[in-house]
Amino acid sequence: MIIDCHGHYTTAPKALEEWRNRQIAGIKDPAMMPKVSELKISDDELCETIELNQLRLMKERGSDLTIFSPRASFMAHHIGDFNVSSTWAAICNELCYRVSQLFPDHFVPAAMLPQSPGVDPATCILELEKCVNEYGNVGINLNPDPSGGHWTSPPLSDKSWYPIYEKMVEYDIPAMIHVSTSCNACFHTTGAHYLNADTTAFMQCLTSDLFKDFPTLRFLIPHGGGAVPYHWGRFRGLAQELKKPLLEDHLLNNIFFDTCVYHQPGINLLNTVIPVKNVLFASEMIGAVRGIDPQTGHYYDDTKRYIEASPILSNEDRFQIYEGNARRVFPRLDAKLKAKGQ
Ligand SMILES: [Zn+2]
After folding, report:
1. How do residues 145-163 score in pLDDT, each as one tens digit?
2. DSSP class of residue 53?
3. Residue 308 annotated as catalytic
4. How far is the CA of 199 from the centre of ligand 1 (A)?
5. For residues 167 and 129, what is the distance between their CA atoms, to the nearest angstrom?
6. Does domain 3-339 have CATH number 3.20.20.140?
7. How far is the CA of 7 from the centre of ligand 1 (A)?
8. Nearest to 208 by CA among 141, 171, 255
């Protein structure tokens, strides 16, 4: 089985974006604020957007199951207050849940949280509980920077995040550390802000003792870990100066990386530096980079090709990256599959 642990609903029906635009307009002019009930998307519309897009590509490229969360750039936690984020997160999470119900063999949901800058992360717990208990979500996306590129929140090691971690440990679910749209002109959303955040989250964990407090907490750092694998020597050296344990012991029981790296040399580097047990297959298809690479004639985000062509990986390694590691990092996914005899 090939599990893609990083997919977003980037192809949701236009009505979703139109509703969101009205919600944003309603922040300034409450008379414009739409009701949740005014958003109407039928099952047929959901099926069409999935069948024509993600599911078609999954079949073409040969992946079986996608861990599916709301579109990351649309989370835009910096817009409005907690109530705005809360309503928006509930809508987006419900849509991913419905997709998972319509295509139970191909999509399993992961939740966005109703984060809001300056608001206590503990306020996200209710939505998190609903998504796990009622919608069968197997993970969450946690935004380390709800301000959208201004980094006004304390680091991930700060105690204000602990209520979320306590709930993650209780439910045995991992978090993908995933920022949203940058509203800081210095940082391009997918080219700079995402990769900055991946690197930043890793370093926040490195300088802290977070995983001493939460030995079973699991973070999935997407986009191949940002700059982390490339600069592994720097991080090892910094950990040494800070008198931290070796990174293998300090972080690699808790931090995992996905394979959303869009060229062969990058994937080779990732798998040379980071142990196989810490790498999970992912493509983030129909996401940040949607074009065809003229050097290969294939889509940049067709990442399975790079795993297949890797000169480093054995077939057992590939099994772990495609399936074994995902089952370990997402135990609720593993339980779902086992319940179906898979
Ligand atoms: Zn993503």
Report:
1. 999 999 999 999 999 999 9
2. T
3. no
4. 15
5. 8
6. yes
7. 7
8. 255
